Amino acid sequence: MRKTFLVFIIVLLVGFYFWYVRGVEIRFWERSEVSSFWTERAKLPVALSEVAAVSLAKAIYLVGGIDGFGRTSGALWRYDEELNRWEELAALPKPVHHAAVAAYRGELYVFGGLQGWTAVPTKRTWKYDPTRNSWAELEVMPLARGAAGAAVVGDYIYLIGGLEFSGPTGELARFDPKFNQWETLTAMPTARDHLAVVASGSRIVAIGGRKGSPARNVDTVEVYDTVSGSWSAVRSMPRARGGIAAVNSEGLLYVFGGEEPTRTFADVDVYRPEHDQWLGAAPMLTGRHGLGAAVLGERIYTIAGGKRPGFSVSSVNEAFVP
Q1: How far out from the chain centre does Cα 197 lie?
Q2: How far is residue 128's CA from residue 59's CA, in Å, rounded to a whole number?
Q3: Taking the mean position of all CA atoms in its chain, how far away is CA 126?
Q4: For 209-217, what is the mean pLDDT?
Q5: Lowest mean pLDDT segment, chosen from 30-39, 154-163, 213-222
Q6: Closest CA to 37 of 316, 310, 313, 301
Q7: What is the secondary structure of 252-303 as a DSSP string?
Q8: Is residue 306 a contact partner of residue 290, using CB atoms and an 8 Å limit?
Q9: Could you give the count of Cα atoms lying within 13 Å of 188 in the half-sphere of its Cβ?
């Protein structure tokens, strides 16, 4: 009797792990792979969450994250759209999750991030050279932080917000890749982490996020003008969300996913900067938080991320045609 009970408990725990952490769903019907504007593409070879993704040289690069056993990943993956295939490249020397990434002049930059279960912020900066498949460490950031956002405007990379040792921050730091130098600028008015940061012309839009907890999501949207060096508030998001991803496609800013304590979001919101207007779009096939998003040609890809709130992972790769 005790043995039967023990087996039952083990089966229950294993089932819970695959259902909640890995997001495995048992279906008694077939789900179409096409939902108006969305299609499923080749899955990431490993299930991850809290990743960072960016498009570079007609491919998508995805770095870092947390795997299904709670381990911090340093893996770097490259997605080839034409072949619909993933390739693993040279790993980041120091694994991180919740990193910020940017692509500049054919190279990949990785900023900060969090380390391990205790989510210790780091101030390390890395550069990846695709032609050599190699990493180089750069000047450290002014402030150790993760769950920040990065955007490129002109010849600078701007790093905004995030989670530091004492909690959410609004710090804005500008990195000069040419001279390998950092400069601290006027801080974002609303300190927050797990936000999305997207360039729009000479301005940078900081969208949503949270103040340390999914129970404290914000709908705040603030814009930094890189010419005047000033911040301004614009129309709030339709729904407060953190753990999101966003991209700029043809001048429109697309915001994907997110979480709150009891659920994840499949929502897709679209911001039109010139009209200060929010629109809706077809939701993702799979709601997720901690996902990566990147643009390749006419498609926007949303990759990995947790299907459940908190610690969960997936290998989902979905493409959206606006």
Answers
A1: 10
A2: 14
A3: 17
A4: 97
A5: 30-39
A6: 301
A7: EEEEE--EETTEE---EEEEETTTTEEEE-PPPSS--BS-EEEEETTEEEEE
A8: yes
A9: 32
Task: Quickly tell me which residue has 């997720």 as its tokens.
Answer: 288
What are the tens digits of pLDDT across the range 74-110?
999 999 999 999 999 999 999 999 999 999 999 999 9
pLDDT of residue 2: 54
> According to the 3-state scheme, what is the secondary structure of 176-224?
ECCCCEEEEECCCCCCCECCEEEEECCEEEEECCECCCHHHECCCEEEE
pTM of the model: 0.91
SS3 label, residue 124: coil
How many other CB atoms are found less than 10 A from the CB of residue 134? 11
Quick one: pLDDT at residue 101?
98
Give which of 23, 18, 13 is closest to 291, Cα–Cα. 23
**CA-based angle 122:99:250, to the nearest 5?**
145
Alpha-carbon distance of 179 to 19, in angstroms, equals 48
pLDDT tops 90 at residue 277: yes
Do the beta carbons of residue 159 and residue 144 sit within 8 Å?
no
C-alpha to C-alpha distances, 91 to 84, 87, 130, 159, 298, nearest whole angstrom: 21, 12, 12, 23, 29
Q: According to the model, what pLDDT value does residue 119 have?
A: 95
Domains parsed from the chain with CATH numbers: 32-320 (2.120.10.80)
Length of the chain: 322
Round to whole Å and give the CA distance between 145 and 122. 6
Exposed/middle/buried for residue 127 (C-beta within 10 Å: 0-12, 13-18, 19+): middle
Which residue type occupies 107? E
* AA letter at 32: S
Give the model's pLDDT for residue 30.
Answer: 35
Mean of the per-residue pLDDT values of the chain: 91
Give the type of residue at 93: P
Q: What's the DSSP call for residue 20? A: I
Classified as helix, coil or strand, 3 is helix
